[in-house]
Amino acid sequence: MELDLDDYRGRLLALRDELESIADTGDAAASTVELDQTRVGRLSRMDAMRAQAMSVEARNRREATLRQIAAALRRIESGDYGDCLACGELIDPRRLAANPAATHCVECAGKLDGSAGRG
């Protein structure tokens, strides 16, 4: 089956642009928590620290996704896009439709997920 690489490239670029556009807002929320004693209705320090930790984790996930997108775009350019990195078989186009940055077929992804839980 032939993959429409232009479609996948466009989807990856759109996702990358979306993630980059929210980066500034998320980065501001992840900055150091300062307790302003003069503000009315301020969050407690613990609430602010919790919100900061959530923002840091969201930024880490966003950066990981951006790396996955960049790798997928490189695979498109090299002609390897859609091939499972573990077995070399074609990744089901339905899987790529759900996650255009997917690197493994369903079977190999299941094996990887299973081995990660066992250490």
Explain this structure:
This protein is mainly α and 119 residues long. It contains five helices and no strands. Helix 1 packs antiparallel against helix 3 (45-78) and helix 2 (23-29) runs antiparallel to helix 3. The longest helix is centred in the middle third of the chain and has 34 residues, at 45-78. The model has no long low-confidence stretch (mean pLDDT 84).
Descriptive tags:
119 residues; mainly alpha; Four Helix Bundle (Hemerythrin (Met), subunit A); 5 helices
Q: Which class best fits the helix and strand makeup?
A: mainly alpha
Report the CATH architecture: Up-down Bundle
Our count of domains comes out at: 1
Secondary-structure element series: HHHHH
The termini sit apart by: 36 Å
Enter the CATH topology name.
Four Helix Bundle (Hemerythrin (Met), subunit A)
As residue ranges, the low-confidence spans are: none
| Fourth-tier CATH superfamily name | DksA, coiled-coil domain
Mean pLDDT across every amino acid position: 84
Which sheet architecture does the biggest sheet show? none
Q: In the CATH hierarchy, what is the class?
A: Mainly Alpha
> Quick one: how many beta strands?
0
Could you tell me the radius of gyration in angstroms? 19 Å
Helix content: 55-70%
Q: If helices are DSSP runs of H or I spanning 4 or more residues, what is the number of helices?
A: 5
Principal-axes geometry comes out as globular
Assess the beta-strand content as a share of residues.
Answer: under 5%
